[in-house]
Amino acid sequence: MSYGDFMPLLETFGIYDAASTDDVLAFCSSMEASPRQREVLSTYTCRVHALAVDIASKVAEGLGILDFSFQDWHCTMRLNVYDLKEETIGLEAAYLHSDSGFLTVLLEGEINGLEVVDQTGKFVAVHSQPGTFVAIIGDMGKVWSNGRLRNVQHRVICTQAAPRISISFSVVSPRDGVVVSPAPLVDEEHPRIYRSVPYNDYREFRRSPSSLDGNFLSLYQAEE
Ligand SMILES: O=C(O)CCC(=O)C(=O)O
Ligand SMILES: [Fe+2]
User: Fold this and answer.
1) Is 90 exceeded by the pLDDT of residue 101?
2) What ipTM goes with this model?
3) CA–CA separation, 96 and 34 (whole Å)
4) From what superkingdom does this record's organism come (predicted)?
5) In the chain, what are the domains?
6) Which atom in ligand 1 lies closest to the alpha carbon of residue 104?
7) Measured in angstroms, how far is the CA atom of residue 176 from the centroid of ligand 2?
8) Which pLDDT belongs to residue 5?
């Protein structure tokens, strides 16, 4: 099941292993991409991968974890295509959710609509700026940081009758799929919140409309 199955205004498809050139090229072949399209897509994926990995390690650095590399982490890339019409204005085009991975780097097109939930629980509209990306921490970011980073809930509202496209690139989990907070982030003042999370199992739990908000993390609460 994909988001599109229960979000009727959204069609989403993408590359399962976006850090792998082979997977990117296989995706291009399945889409019957022209040589120029292949070049654009593989260059884009490669550069956004480098950017996302760089942002992730800077985030880690901000938490005092130096020289941590996300280079080999599993990454996914999704193209979101929204079919927005006059009669859908004001509706949720993407339901409120948190992203399941560590960090998402989101390229917004010209059509606004993204809203994030701030610390006080209020929705804040994100106005897309040409030449910029939006970075959003996901559920695995919260697990990895032992709760220091917030998995930011967000949604997309239909604001105008125009096709809307966004591209999300996510740094998801280590290659072995197991996300665990590094030892320096756990101490007496900050007891471990979550035991290690096998990402693929976690992802399975989230495959229903009522489970997208990151609250399923409570299943992985560490023992007292
Ligand atoms: O289309 C957007 O602006 C948001 C997409 C999104 O939340 C996602 O891909 O997880
Ligand atoms: Fe998202």
Assistant:
1) yes
2) 0.99
3) 36
4) Eukaryota
5) 8-212 (2.60.120.330)
6) 10
7) 23
8) 53
